[in-house]
Automatic annotation (TrEMBL):
Listed transmembrane segments: 12-32, 44-63, 100-122, 128-148, 160-178, 190-213, 234-256, 283-308, 329-349, 355-376, 388-410, 416-433
Keyword Membrane carried by entry: yes
Record lineage: Bacteria, Pseudomonadati, Bacteroidota, Flavobacteriia, Flavobacteriales
Keyword Transmembrane helix: yes
Cross-referenced InterPro entries: AA/rel_permease1, AminoAcid_Transporter
Membrane topology: Multi-pass membrane protein
Domain of life: Bacteria
Keywords: Membrane, Transmembrane, Transmembrane helix
Primary location class: membrane
Alphabetical list of Pfam families matching this protein: AA_permease_2
Species of the source: Flavobacterium ginsengiterrae
Localization per Swiss-Prot or TrEMBL: Membrane
Name of the molecule in the record: Amino acid permease
Length: 438
């Protein structure tokens, strides 16, 4: 039986882990790369900062709703549980697998990128890129097989180091006075169709960079006091991430004008070259590696929790609920790791990553709607935390989600078609699994 004591996750995680996994699972190399791409799209200082702030406010509204959902149903797997409870088995099944896809792709990607950054520091290893990637994956699998506590400690240490690195970079930028940044003219074409297109494309990148903000919800079942810890960590973690993202952008613009940043593939490296000379690129590489190790650790822990939840409800193999002595869902971890190994060997992520933000918006939007539905459908469910200004904040989050989804469909129709194709293929599979459950 999947609910026997040996197959239950341990309540061994606390507030410090929650904040660490949120920061670790959110802040990656995206913030070091995307400022240049977004500058090229929008060409307006205030519009760029407003875009990052808009993304942050959207995520903060989400944190408000997720705080109630995750404390009301503190189960492994996050969003899947709320959507299934409110909207039925198929909605839960589809959103669970959507969520799994989004969270199972990053470990392979981050293993490859860490190996690439390692080769930048040690060029003599250039012919061992795939070997380094696979070795990293194996090392983290062994770490997490040893127990949840070890993974938690690594998460807290690496997330702390990551924040220190970013704060140091921001301070160095604002202390820089070598070149006076020219005044940035206001772009009068803000309401042109082309700029609206660019705005939604930039928001897709920004939402992708914020992805991971709800990481704590995947571990709700393992939290020693979810009613208090989850809301505290969601709010404090999201506010810290938003502050870092806006400060990093403002700091980069303090060093380089938009025109220069807009031509940069790795904005942080160009900024660091000005600040620290030719060694600047190495400094950014080290910061990137710290960021990636932290986010890799977080994403090694998240997909197994989703598979565990799906397995418990009969939407994956029964063995997916097996938990070892260290509290790790062992089969779910190994399945996810083999999937990562497969992706490392293929090495193609462009299409997969292009619709990650897309899927996230769909899953989050369904979760917000689930909050409204569960308030009506099951008013007596225990709610240790109630979202503030309900229902208006949740309704605004849903409206934002629909607007973002419409914008993404307009700016990236191919990803939308892929998502629709997954939904179409998934229904017959759902029917087969449902019959097997009976």
């Amino acid at each position: 039986m999947s609910d026997s004591p040996k197959n239950q996750l341990r309540k061994s995680l606390g507030l410090s882990f929650n904040i660490a996994v949120l920061i670790g699972g959110t802040i990656g190399v995206g913030i070091l790369r995307t400022p240049g791409t977004i500058a090229e799209m929008l060409h307006n200082y205030w519009l760029i900062l407003a875009s990052w702030l808009f993304g942050g406010l959207y995520v903060l509204l989400g944190a408000n709703s997720y705080s109630e959902l995750a404390t009301m149903l503190p189960k492994a797997g996050g969003s899947y549980n709320y959507i299934k409870r409110a909207l039925g088995d198929y909605a839960g099944f589809l959103s669970g697998w959507y969520d799994y896809i989004v969270n199972a792709i990053p470990p392979a990607f981050y293993c490859i990128v860490i190996s690439e950054y390692t080769i930048i520091l040690f060029p003599e290893l250039s012919s061992y890129s795939t070997v380094i990637s696979i070795a990293l994956l194996i090392a983290f699998v062994l770490l997490h097989l040893s127990g949840v506590k070890n993974g938690s400690v690594i998460q807290q240490i690496t997330s702390f180091l990551k924040v220190i690195c970013f704060v140091a970079l921001v301070i160095a930028c604002f202390m820089y006075t070598g070149v006076e940044v020219p005044a940035i003219k206001t772009d009068n074409s803000i309401f042109q169709i082309g700029l609206i297109f660019s705005f939604f494309k930039s928001l897709q990148l920004i939402i992708g960079t914020y992805n991971g903000w709800n990481a704590v919800c995947f571990f709700a079942e393992e939290n020693d006091d979810p009613g208090k810890n989850i809301p505290k960590s969601l709010y404090s973690g999201v506010l810290l991430v938003v502050a870092i993202y806006i400060l990093v952008n403002a700091a980069f613009f303090h060093v380089l004008p938009i025109e220069t940043l807009a031509k940069s593939n790795l904005a942080a490296a160009d900024v660091a070259k000005i600040l620290f000379g030719e060694n600047g690129a190495k400094i950014v590489t080290v910061i990137s590696i710290f960021s990636l190790i932290s986010i890799l650790n977080a994403f090694m822990m998240i997909p197994p929790r989703i598979l565990y939840g799906l397995s418990r409800d009969g939407f994956f193999i029964k063995q997916g609920t097996q938990v070892n002595k260290g509290g790790t869902p062992i089969v779910a971890l190994l399945v996810s790791s083999f999937f990562s190994l497969f992706l490392i060997c293929i090495g193609s992520f462009e299409v997969l990553f292009s619709f990650a933000a897309f899927i996230s918006i769909i899953v989050w939007g369904l979760a917000y709607y689930s909050l409204l539905k569960l308030r009506i459908k099951e008013p007596h469910l225990p709610r240790p935390y109630r979202s503030f200004w309900y229902p208006w904040t949740t309704i605004i989050a849903i409206i934002f989600s629909i607007a973002l989804l419409a914008g993404f469909i307009y700016s990236d129709p191919i990803s939308f078609l892929i998502i629709v194709a997954i939904a179409v293929v998934s229904y017959p599979l759902f029917l087969v699994l449902s019959k097997n459950k009976k």
